[in-house]
Design brief:
Helix content of chain A: 40-55%
CATH superfamily of chain A: Creatininase
Largest sheet of chain A: 4 strands, parallel
Radius of gyration of chain A: 18 Å
Number of strands of chain A: 6
Distance between the termini of chain A: 22 Å
Shape of chain A: globular
Mean pLDDT of chain A: 97
Structural class of chain A: alpha/beta
Strand content of chain A: 5-15%
CATH architecture of chain A: 3-Layer(aba) Sandwich
Oligomer: homohexamer
CATH class of chain A: Alpha Beta
Number of helices of chain A: 7
C-alpha cells in the first residue's frame, strides 16, 4: 500500500494514524546548484530520503515543500528564496496540524542546509515540541552526509553541488545531471556578509563535481538511511 | 526538453527566461475529499492542468505548493490547513522572486477553491502586480469547471468531491479513486460560521460521485485547458 | 429604548447582555460607487440592514466599521482600501471582545462583497467561532440581494453600483443619489490580475443604474431582511 | 454642500481634493464611561469636534473609527478594546490611502486619550509624515480641554467621565446623559500595572459628574474648536 | 553579594528567586541629548536608579536595554531609534521569561519618556500582568523627577537635556558632561506631527542646562529613589 | 578618547562618523552557563572582544544587547530567551539606524552561538547589506575559538561552559568564576528536538571546566582578536 500521505483517502489516513506511524515532511529548495545539477536537487534528495526511510519505519510521506531560504545564491538565475518567517510559519502550521491529527512522531528532512533555513525549521519544531507531546526529529541530510568528508576519497572541503551532492544526484536522478561538470570554491572572506555572493562563488558550487560517481552516491544514500533509521529508532 | 522548472539547471533556466516563458505555479491542498478520493486531489489536478497548459503556451511549471487554507474540512482526518497569512506570504514571496528573476508572465492555478484560500492567493498576486510590470493570471480551475454545472447531465449542486471532481480524478489518477463512492450535500445553514462543519457535511462531499466517469473527466479537463489557453493568450 | 450599542451606558449594556441579545456589526467600505452614488454606500446599506434586523430579533447594533478592502477600485478618487490583515485583525479583536463580554450571538453584515474583503471577515469569524461557544453569522447583504438577478426585470449581469444597488440607495438615502446615472460593465479579461483596473471598468459600475427605482430598492431591502431573519432564527 | 467624505461621489470628492481641503479623521472608543454616559462618548465628541472644525477650515470629515485601545477599562461591561497594533495599522493604512489620493492636510482627532491609544495613532502619523509631503495634526481633544482644569470651578483632578466630559456630552448629546450621576476617583497605586483596574476605580470615572452643566460643556467645546482652528491654521 | 542578575550563576539565581526578589529591568535609549550630554544618558540614569533601588528592596538588576523609541530626535547624529513593535516585543518576551522563571515582582524603569516609547513598555507590562499573577511597576523616572518642575528654582518648562537632566548626569557621570552648555526649547507647533523635528528644536534640548549642578542632581536622584521605594512597597 | 558610542555627545559622534569608523555591536545572552559561570558570560565576552577590537581598527562600541535566543537552556533557572523574530527585528532596526547615520562599516560580535540565535542576527545583516552600501561582518567569537579544539590540550568535544569558555572568563572576569567546576556533556540523541533538554545535559555544560586556566583564556582571547582584526581588515 502507498506510503504517500496525499494518496490516501481521509478514512485510510485515519486508520493509518491509529497505527502510530512516523510522518515525514521533506523540505527542499529551488536554487542554483551548479550548471550540472537541477534547481530542485535539494527537494529531490529530501523526497528520496523520506521515501526510503518510510519503508523502514512504518512511515508516511507528506508532499514536499520545495521552497526554502536560499539568500546566498540569489544572484544566480532560478533561485527562489523565501524568508525565514515564511518558512518558519508554514512549517509550524503544518506540524501543528499534524499534532491536531493526533500524529505523534514526525521527522522533518531538509535537503538544503543553509543556517537561516535550518533555523527556521528547527525553531518551528521546537515550538511545536514544547507545546505538545509529539516527538520530532529535524535535520538536513547533509548533516549526516558530511560526516564522510575527508574519508573514502572525498575532499574535506566538499560542499554545495560538489562531489557528494553530485554523486547522490547521479544515484537517484541520473538523467538530470549534466556531464559538463564544474569545480569551484567559496572565496567569501571570513564572516563577511557579502552583498554580491556570486563574485565569491563563481561556479556556484563548492568542491569538485568531476569526481562524482553514481556508485558513491548510492553508498552515501544508504549510509544516510542507516544512520537516520538508527536516530529515529532511538527516540520513537 | 523538460518544462519542469526545478529539473533545469540555473544556466538552462536563465536561457529559457530570456525566451519570455509563462511560468505556472500549481497550488493544491491536503484535505479530506470523501472516502473515494485522495487527500491530495487538489494538488494532483492543479499540477496536471499546469503541465497541460505549459505544453500549449511555452510554459515552465514550478514545483507545487501542496498546502492550502482548508478550515471548513478540518474535522476530518488528514486535513492540513495553513493560515491565510502563511499562504499569502509564501505565494507573495515566490512571485516576488519570479519577478526578480525577470519572469514576466505568471499563471497561478489552484486546485482548491475555498474563498479564504483564493483570497490569500489573489491578494498576493495583486500586490506583486501593482508593484511591477509582470502579467499575472490567478484562478481555481473549478472556476472554469463549474461553468459546466447544470449541463451535460451534471447536477447544478455538484461540488467538492462530487461528480465533476471524481470524474476529473478518474481521468488522471484512476488508481487513487476508490469504487466505494459516496453522495452528500452541504447542509450548513445559510451564512452560519459553523463551529463543527462535519456535522453539516456528513459524507464530506457535495454531489453524487457515483455518476462520475473517466470520459467525462477527460472532457472537462480538455475544456478547462482550452478555456485557460484562451484566457492566457488574451493577456500574455 | 435605543438598540445602538454605543448609546447605552455600561450598566444598561450589562443588563441587556444578560438578556442574550443578537449583536450586529455592520461593515462597509469607503470606495468609488459610480458618479451617482456616495463613497459610503456600502456602509450606509450595512448599517440600515443591521438596524432593521435588530428590531426583529432582539438586537443591538455596534458602531460600523466604514473601511474595507477595496483593491480593485483604488484607481478612482476617494477609495480608501485597507489590507486584508488590517481588516481581519480588527474584526477578530472586536469579536473577541464581544465574547469576553459574554455575548453569545453575533451577526456581521458587510455591505461590501469583494472576495478578499469577505475572506478577511470570515476568517476572523471562523477563528473566534472555533475558540469559543459563540454563534456567528457573517455575510455580505449582496449575497442575498443577488439571488434576485435575472428576476423582476433585473439583468443577470447587474453588480457594483448597478440597478440593485442604486435602487437600494434610492430607498434609504435618496438625497445622496444623483440623477446623472451611468451604465457600465466589467471588461477585465477572465482571471487576469489587472494592474490598472479602471481601464477595464470605465464608468466604475457594473449594470444599468438608470433602471433603478426607490420602490424596487425597498422591495429588495425587505426581501433581504426577511431572508436574514430566517437565517438568524435558524441558528440563534 | 455636505462636508462628509462618505456622502460624496467619487467625482465630487475628486473635485474637492483639487481644492486642497483639510481632511479630518475622528477616532473614538467603545468603552465604559460611568453609569451616566454612553459607551460611545469618545466617538460622539470626536465626530462633533471634527464637524465643527471642518466648517471653519474648508474641511471634509471621514467616517469615524469607533474602536480604540481601552485596556484599563476592560473590567466593565461594554468595553471593546482593540490592540495597539490593530489601531496603529488601520490608522496608518487609512492615512496612506489619503496620501495616495493626493490629500495634503490631515487632522486626526481622538476623543479617547489613553497613552497606548494615542501612541498607536501618533506613531502611524509619524510614519506617514516621514514618508511623504503631507501635513498632519494629531491630538486628543482632551489635551486641549484639560488645560481648563483648575480653572472656572473645574477641579484639578477632573478626568474620564468627570465634570468636563459630562458637561461636553450634555452640550451635544443631552438625551444620552443620565441624571443619575456618579463621582469617583482613580486610586491605582503610582506606576502600578494593575491586573484588575476596576477595583481601583469603583465608579469607573475620575471626577464629580454632578457638577456638570450643558452651558459649561458648550463653552468648553467652543474653546477646543477655537484652539484647534488656531493650531490648524498655524501649520496648514 | 552582587545584585546584578547576569553576574550570578544559574544556581545562585535559582536560590535568590526562592527569596522572592524584586527584579529591575532598566531601559534606556541611544539618542541625542544636547551637545553637553552623552547619547546614552537615559540608559545611565535608568541603570543607576535600578541599582540604588535594588539595594533598598531586596532587588536584582537585569542587564539594561539601551535602545528605545526616539523618533522625534532622529534628525540628530547618533540617535538610534527602534520601532514601537520591536521594543514592545522584546520587553514582553523578557517579562514573560521572568514569569516563567517564577519571578513575581518586576519593576521596569525607563530613563527615556517619549509617549510611544512608554506605551510600548506599558502595553507589554499590561499583557504580562493580565496573563499571570506577577506584580509589575513600570515608569519613566522623569515621571517622578518632573514633579519638581516649578519648585526649587527649576523652571516649569524644563525638559529633555535641561536643568534636571543635566544635574542628574552631573551627579552620576560627571566626566561625561561637557562644560559647553546649551539652552533651548521645543517650538514645534501644537499637535503638529512635524516631518523635520530638528528645525523646531535647534539645540536639541528643552530648558537651560547652564543652571545645572551636581548637588541638585544628587538631591533629585535621592527624591526619585525615595518616591519609588514607597511606590514599590505599596504594592509588592 | 572614549570609544564607547553611548558616552559621546551627538556632536562628537557626528565628527567621529565623518572619520569612517568601524562600529561594533556586541550581542550576548542571559542564560545558564554551568554552576561556575555567570548568566551573562556571553555578553561579557562579546563586549570585551568588541572593546579590544575597537582599539585596533578605529572602532566605536555600541551598548550591548544582552538578550538572545537560548531555547535549549530554558529549563535552567535564569535563562531569558527571546524569540528569533524579536532578536532579528531589533538587530535589523539598529543596523538600519546605523546606515541612516551614514555609518559604513559594522561588525556584529555575538558571544552566544546557538544556530537560531546566529541565524536571527545574520538574516538581519543580510537584509541590511542587500539594501545599502554598508560593509558588515557578523560572527560568534566561538566560531574562531573553536578552531582551537583538538589543539593545545583542548578536547575536541569542548563546548558551552567548557574548558575554552571557562578559561576565557577566567581571563576577563575572574571574580565571577566559581572554583566549583563541573564537567558535562550533551547526550541529546542525534537530531532530536527534545522537549526537556535539561535531562540530556545534566550539568548544563559541554566539556571539562576543571582544566580551564586564565592563561589559556588570555591566549585564546588574543588569538580571536588577531584573527578578527585580519578578517576586518580584509574587507573594510
Amino acid at each position: 500500500m502507498t506510503q504517500m500521505f496525499d494518496e490516501l483517502s481521509f478514512e485510510t489516513l485515519g486508520a493509518r494514524v491509529a497505527d502510530d506511524p512516523v510522518v515525514f515532511l521533506p523540505i527542499g529548495a529551488t536554487e542554483e546548484h551548479g550548471r550540472h545539477l537541477p534547481l530542485g536537487s535539494d527537494t529531490f534528495q529530501a523526497v528520496d530520503m523520506c521515501n526510503a526511510l518510510a519503508q523502514r519505519v512504518n512511515g508516511l510521506v507528506l508532499p514536499p515543500l520545495a521552497y526554502g531560504v536560499s539568500t546566498s545564491l540569489r544572484d544566480f538565475p532560478g533561485t527562489i528564496s523565501i524568508s525565514h518567517q515564511a518558512l518558519n510559519t508554514i512549517v509550524r502550521e503544518i506540524l501543528s496540524e499534524l499534532v491536531r491529527n493526533e500524529i505523534r512522531k514526525i521527522v522533518v528532512v531538509s535537503g538544503h542546509g543553509a543556517q537561516v533555513h535550518m533555523s527556521a525549521i528547527k525553531s518551528a519544531c521546537e515550538e511545536i515540541s514544547d507545546a505538545s507531546d509529539v516527538r520530532i526529529i529535524a535535520l538536513c541530510d547533509y548533516d549526516v552526509a558530511y560526516r564522510l568528508r575527508g574519508k573514502q576519497g572525498i575532499p574535506a572541503a566538499d560542499g554545495h553541488g560538489g562531489m557528494i551532492e553530485t554523486s547522490r544526484m547521479l544515484a537517484v536522478r541520473p538523467l538530470l545531471v549534466s556531464d559538463d561538470r564544474p569545480s569551484g570554491q567559496d572565496t567569501t572572506p571570513d564572516f563577511f556578509i557579502a552583498r554580491h555572493r556570486k563574485r565569491y562563488m563563481t561556479e556556484g558550487i563548492i568542491g569538485d563535481s568531476t569526481k562524482a560517481t553514481a556508485a558513491l552516491g548510492q553508498q552515501i544514500n544508504l549510509y544516510i538511511v542507516e544512520e537516520l533509521v538508527k536516530a529515529i529508532r532511538a527516540v520513537m
